[in-house]
Amino acid sequence: MASGLPKRIIKETERLVAEPVPGIHAVPHEDNLRYFDVSIHGPAQSPYEGGIFRLELFLPEDYPMTPPKIRFLTKIYHPNIDRLGRICLDVLKGNWSPALQIRTILLSIQALLGAPNPDDPLANDVAQRWKEDEKAAIATAREWTRTHAMT
Amino acid sequence: MAGSSPMIMSSTSVSASSLDLRALTYLTPVDENLCCPICRSLLIDPQTTKCRHTFCSNCIAGALEISPTCPVDRNPLERGDVSAAPIMISNLVNDLVVLCPNTPLGCTATRARSLIEGHLKDECGFVTVDCPGCEDKILRRDLREECMHTEDHESICPQLTSSCQHCSSEFPRSEISSHELTCDEAIMVCDACSVGCPWSGRRREATAHVLSCAFTYLRPLLHEHASRIAALELENKSLKKRIDILMPTRRDSERSENSSGLLDEQTIQILTEQEHIRSDLERLFAAVADMDMKQSLLTIHMSENMRTREEITMIGAAVNNLRSQLLGLQLLTLRQQSGAGSPSSGSSGTSTRAAVGSILPVRRMNEAIPGNDRVKL
Fold first, then answer.
1. Which domain range does residue B125 map to?
2. Does residue A84 belong to the interface with chain B, where contact is any CB pair within 8 Å?
3. Which intervals hold domain UBC core (chain A) (predicted)?
4. What are the pLDDT digits (tens) for B228-258?
5. Predicted TM-score (pTM) of this structure
6. How far apart, in whole angstroms, are the C-alpha atoms of residue B257 and residue B237?
7. Cα angle for residues B117, A6, B80 (degrees, 5° grid)
């Protein structure tokens, strides 16, 4: 497995460990260096502040030509993240570029937590509530952060 | 990082065909500006787009197959929009000095990156090549120009034949050791040499020898004896250890001198001493018994003594009583003698009676303890 790992993945992993992004941790599995355990701290001044959200990240065989596969493992109330933890983010799909990296993608996800976009929803019910009663939706997001991301 | 070390430290030999330019180690620190945005390694065959971004030729080709945009700025991009980068960029990356990828095997060569492929192809002694004599892989430095074989390799190459030193027939080297185990001409010793058979000869004569060898028949018996002796020695050893623990003084005497004379002398000395001690002990026992008897006698005397003392006190009290009564009587008699008429007879009558009553028990006590002179006082 390790011998078949492209040099780029090795370099990225080394840099993630040597110069970690503040508020983001990504550690590869010992038995599968393409699979990462990720945790992202909720951004300040967002309903997710104080929470630590766990994600899984997998680098497919043709990475970096195709984007990494990322999913939230911690439950989160967000218009662009559905019940299964799937994320609606352009750079994870059509707007992926091989010049992007694990660290830039994780930064994009952290930014998405700070700026929910209910006009491009993945979780329809959440997005609708967000548009109808943003205050209540943010309160729910805070509540979910307390119960699921602070233990 | 865990993933990188096995790649760098891998001890498999790298040849010109298995060379991975992205896995090379550079002598100088890597300049990020000369790295491909896609593979993050120093550019290899750099290509520049019409939007003036530079990539490795393989990387940009792969990216354009997936999406017709520039990976850096997402501008629309097609194959025709990509051409060779300025020669200056190519020279910058090609002239960087790298370590030979066979450094872990011992190669000390360093070359400009553009020359490293040639080094592996023609020079590097740590590239594996085919042995012309067999299917083995050997390192290039082990090849010789004249015979294309190294002596080292020749001595181990299993395909070469060599002759049996006993029967002088030829065998492939890999089979020679198994042949020697069965060669009729090989010199061997009798199976019973372990129990003393001095015979040695060719293997083909061994069968005849075994039929006449007395040692062979005795061998099982001797083996049994040997194993029994071993068991006994073992037991003896453990017993000796226990004796040593029980008699530490004996260990000292054994260590200093093993001669039986000295041992006997010491034993006799110890025995006489023991005898002395025993008689002393007996005497002491008798003395103790004597003392015990004396002590019990003393105890009896003492208790008698105590009883006597008690009685003396009681008698003393009685004597005092008597004395006061006597004094009273004397006074009474004096008064009667000196008095003219008759004083009150009633009072004297009672006192006389009391005196008579108090004398009586004293007499009884005197009878109970004969031979006590003090009572008379």
1. 21-143
2. no
3. 4-150
4. 999 999 999 999 988 888 876 655 555 555 5
5. 0.52
6. 20
7. 75
